[in-house]
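A.,

Following up on our hallway conversation. Structure tokens first:
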């Protein structure tokens, strides 16, 4: 169904976005308003606005149809907001200043209607100024806010700021008894003899929510329930920015578009899988936030678990977002309860010196957790999720270690196992550690690698920032790389019992030196889980 047409159909409720998704016909034009709530904050400044800038610079956002609104309580002018974010954009002064002109700032509270009514008025004014066909305007709300205010903010958006469905043009007789514009919920008023009439003019309202989505199963479910009463799932984009990273997006291609991985990707061949996140700095100014959450909620329950899903899931029926997310949910539901002996927690020395962190804090800044998947493909293969702050390096990678070669006639086992490593950052790469003949006259073996280093192989090809890609997906209505409600629930089901035990002080983190590998017990757990470290071989990212 194309833009500008009316449709009369028997239907039970308002399902505009789901309907469009189902038919995949949402037009990609029309007035677009992007509203960044929490515009004065850290994420907005460092990630959201720069991502929007890059989309603009590359021509994905057009100045003739897009306008960006910042909203927060802080009382600043448009120019003050622009000055705050200017330094985080780019070096092309002219493009930057054109982009900044698209931004307007509205100040208001998060829990009263007047601010949101003002915001709505500004957005509407922009839509009218662009001669947007009534009903075709698109409103994207990005919640760069602490989760505590999500419920009230969502309520306010629902009440005051939904995309307007213009009726005047299309039902000339009706506008005499209706206000000129109707927000979506009012469409129920259009029920005539059990027929609902609605416009499919490509307009929508979508909400992007930042993690953390709750603190445990119960709080996450409450949040989902609350927001679910206001918006349909198809309107909700729960962002996990690791899903926007280039090599995370490559996982399904690697696994399902390459014949040689298909027969190997299972318990018969793979000994263990490690998914690792390391940062060489501490909580740095975010101690207050971090202490409430800890490394499991901050990194493992979301970023690393999402990666585990993509590594372990079965092939989806097709690339339709719902098929992919169905498979992810199945993997999560197959994860066995976590055993205490499969966990090592750490806290770096000096973490509690931060004045915003309580002196007695039990919050882990490091954790290794071994997950076990109870299904035909993965029974017996440990998935080791490891994350830590203030370690000796910064990187994120997936390391798939294969089993020993049976009947080792070269006696090369001591040199190390085959590994397939996907390096997410820095220096995106994937390499396969394999044993080869040492070049020369002797018949001896050595570990080497097949290396696909992106910087070398794709010279001059820019790798988009995760947020850039995910915001574009939101505008396009593609939910493949966003977390669905049941996925979130299944993820919390895995970690909630462990988190409660940590919160209650039943499990204590071990102290480790900043700049170290973390607690030594973590390496012992790795060895116990079956990981065999290769000695004497180090992969070095190639330089140009
Ligand atoms: N910063 C980061 O790198 C990352 C952040 N996130 C998530 O993104 C969201 C935003 O993060 P971030 O920008 O760091 O957060 P901030 O603490 O900077 O908060 C954003 C804005 O929200 C308002 N705000 C802050 N505290 C409160 C409060 N208690 N009640 C109401 N409003 C408040 C402030 O605006 P004002 O007072 O002007 O209204 C502030 O500028 C969070 O959910 C966070 O977990 C996710 C990944 C990374
Ligand atoms: O979500 C988060 O991610 C960052 C790390 O993101 P990256 O893209 O730089 O790897 C982490 O520092 C932060 O604690 C966490 O909230």
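Then the amino acids I'd put at each of the 544 positions:
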């Amino acid at each position: 169904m194309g833009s500008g047409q009316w449709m009369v159909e028997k239907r039970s409720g308002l399902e505009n976005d789901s309907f469009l998704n189902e038919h995949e016909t949402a037009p990609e034009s029309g007035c677009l308003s992007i509203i960044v709530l929490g515009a004065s904050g850290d994420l907005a400044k460092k990630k959201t606005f720069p991502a929007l800038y890059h989309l603009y610079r590359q021509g994905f956002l057009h100045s003739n149809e897009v306008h960006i609104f910042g909203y927060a309580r802080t009382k600043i002018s448009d120019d003050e907001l622009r000055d705050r974010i200017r330094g985080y954009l780019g070096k092309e002064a002219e493009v930057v200043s054109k982009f900044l002109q698209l931004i307007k700032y509205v100040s208001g509270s998060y829990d009263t209607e007047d601010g949101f009514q003002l915001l709505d008025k500004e957005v509407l004014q922009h839509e009218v100024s662009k001669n947007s066909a009534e009903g075709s305007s698109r409103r994207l709300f990005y919640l760069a806010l602490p989760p505590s205010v999500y419920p009230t903010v969502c309520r306010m958006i629902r009440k005051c700021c939904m995309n307007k469905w213009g009726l005047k043009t299309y039902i000339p007789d009706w506008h005499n008894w209706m206000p000129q514009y109707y927000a979506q919920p009012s469409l129920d008023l259009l029920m005539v003899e059990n027929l609902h009439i609605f416009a499919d003019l490509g307009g929508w309202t979508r909400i992007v929510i930042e993690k953390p989505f709750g603190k445990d199963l119960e709080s996450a479910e409450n949040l989902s329930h609350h927001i679910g009463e206001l918006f349909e799932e198809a309107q909700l984009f729960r962002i996990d920015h690791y899903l926007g990273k280039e090599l995370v997006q490559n996982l399904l291609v690697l696994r399902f578009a390459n014949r040689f991985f298909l027969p190997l990707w299972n318990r018969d061949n793979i000994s263990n899988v490690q998914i690792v996140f390391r940062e060489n700095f501490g909580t740095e100014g975010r101690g207050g936030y971090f202490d409430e959450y800890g490394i499991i909620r901050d990194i493992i329950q979301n970023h690393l678990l999402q990666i585990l899903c993509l590594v372990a899931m079965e092939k989806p029926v097709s690339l339709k977002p719902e098929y992919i997310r169905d498979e992810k949910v199945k993997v999560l539901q197959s994860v066995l309860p976590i055993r205490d002996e499969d966990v090592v927690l750490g806290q770096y020395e000096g973490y509690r010196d931060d004045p915003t962190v309580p002196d007695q804090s039990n919050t882990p800044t490091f954790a290794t957790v071994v997950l076990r998947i109870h299904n035909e493909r993965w029974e017996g293969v440990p998935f080791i999720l490891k994350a830590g702050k203030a370690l000796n390096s910064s990187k994120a990678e997936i390391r798939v270690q294969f089993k020993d070669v049976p009947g080792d006639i070269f006696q090369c086992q001591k040199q190390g196992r085959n590994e397939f490593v996907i390096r997410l950052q820095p220096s995106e790469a994937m390499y396969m550690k394999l044993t080869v003949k040492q070049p020369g006259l002797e018949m001896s073996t050595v570990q080497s690698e097949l290396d696909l280093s992106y910087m070398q192989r794709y010279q001059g090809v820019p790798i988009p920032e995760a947020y850039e890609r995910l915001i574009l997906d939101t505008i396009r209505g593609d939910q493949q790389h966003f977390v669905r409600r049941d996925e979130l629930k299944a993820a919390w089901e895995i970690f909630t019992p462990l988190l409660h035990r940590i919160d209650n002080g039943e499990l204590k983190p071990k102290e480790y030196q900043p700049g170290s590998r973390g607690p030594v017990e973590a390496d012992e757990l790795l060895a116990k889980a079956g990981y065999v470290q290769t000695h004497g071989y180090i992969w070095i990212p190639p330089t140009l």
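The first helix runs from residue 16 to 23. Curious whether your intuition agrees with the design.

B.
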